[in-house]
Amino acid sequence: MTVEDAKYIREKVMAHNKWFEECIPMIASENLMSPLAKEMLISDFADRYAEGLPGKRYYQGNIYVDQVEIKALELAKKVFNADFADVRPISGTVANMAVLFAFANPGDTITTCALAQGAHISTCEFGAFGQRSVNSVNYPFDEENMNLDVDGTIKLLKQVKPKVAQFGLSVFLFPPPLKELQDTFNEVGCLVWEDCAHVLGLIAGGQFHDPLREGVNIVSSSTHKTFPGPNHGMLLGQNLTEEQEKKLQKAVFPGVTSSHHLHAMAALAITLAEMDVYGKEYAAQACKNSRALGQALYELGVPVLCEKQGFTRSHAIAVDVAQFGGGLECAKLLEDANIICNKNMLPRDTSSVRPSGLRLGSQEMTRLGMKETEMKQVAEFIARVVVKKEDPAKVKEDVKDFKRQFSTIQYCFNADEPAYAYHKLVQ
Ligand code: DSN
Prior knowledge:
Layout: H1 3-21, E1 24-25, H2 35-40, E2 52-53, E3 56-57, H3 63-80, E4 84-86, H4 92-103, E5 109-112, H5 128-131, E6 135-138, E7 141-142, E8 147-148, H6 150-160, E9 164-167, H7 178-188, E10 191-195, H8 200-204, E11 218-222, E12 233-237, H9 242-256, H10 262-299, E13 316-320, H11 327-336, E14 339-340, E15 342-344, E16 357-361, H12 363-367, H13 372-386, H14 392-403, H15 421-426
Parallel strand pairs: 1-14, 5-6, 5-9, 9-10, 10-11
Antiparallel strand pairs: 2-3, 4-12, 7-8, 11-12, 13-16, 15-16
Helix pairs in contact: 3-10, 4-9, 6-7, 10-13, 13-14
The structure holds D-serine (DSN).
């Protein structure tokens, strides 16, 4: 390694930053942290270790780390109205692994959604569920409504009597029918767990659903999708016994983490404080924006799933671009026009490499201050590339002009700072 290598790497990162200043970001699992939260990532917390819980550490030097973590726990419980929180999982998948370590032994049955219907990879045979050797059984899915088939799910739960009933999706258009399943959960006596990663910011803002009031005992999540925090994870709980809480804490450390990325934990604490103030307004706008985007695309001839149901109740929409060359082809063309999104499997697809869909998220555009009017503009850019097959290079120039008007992050304490202030600081 020479200094030239280091320069090369830095240049590439800076080039990426510059590029994204001129892109429309539509990946449904990404977001922008506030400048204040991002500052935490270059603090001295990034260079330190902490193991265990505040006040019971294995390292000295954690005086301020403990104070920040205690504040983060307080804020997490307040924002989500939860009676248990753990802010130490270093990602959503690690949070999922902690739940598995705590509450499932190899061979235990867990019911979950299927990958083709939008489940997260960690719940699959080749993901964390498989690594834990649990017997996972998929719920029946209602493709027309892009949600669980309630009667079939009740039947399945009664039949297999899972130890844990798990929910959560990565293409999360509508809230799971938890209220309808609550009696069955009680009858079966299973623990109810939902991976809320995609919709955590919406839940924080009182949109989508309220899992901890709808029978869910444990919420696992990453903290950087609709919730605009750092790449990190979190666990929340309701009505857990003291023994269950301790099991979960032990599964986090020493089960699946050592130190828990203290700089990210501090950034999470800042984001929780910001969401406590701005979450409601931000989440409501993100949901309005995704519906407006769905409607505009639909009117421009792009098939958007679930038209009859209003396209979505979350930040995300799913579009079927099979007739325009498929998800892979369209996502690449859009990237050439500086519109960043991902190909996605739709329920009838069998290939994740060449699926027929695209998944589009409104949350990051919302953070940058875009509203329903801008969603119409974004839909037009997409239709020019996907439907009209205009040269992406030409559309790109218009996208760049459009995006330059949206360079500050909204819904945070220092909203007057440019979104990319952190990058400018270190350039
Ligand atoms: N892979 C992420 C997504 O885009 O949905 C979830 O971890």
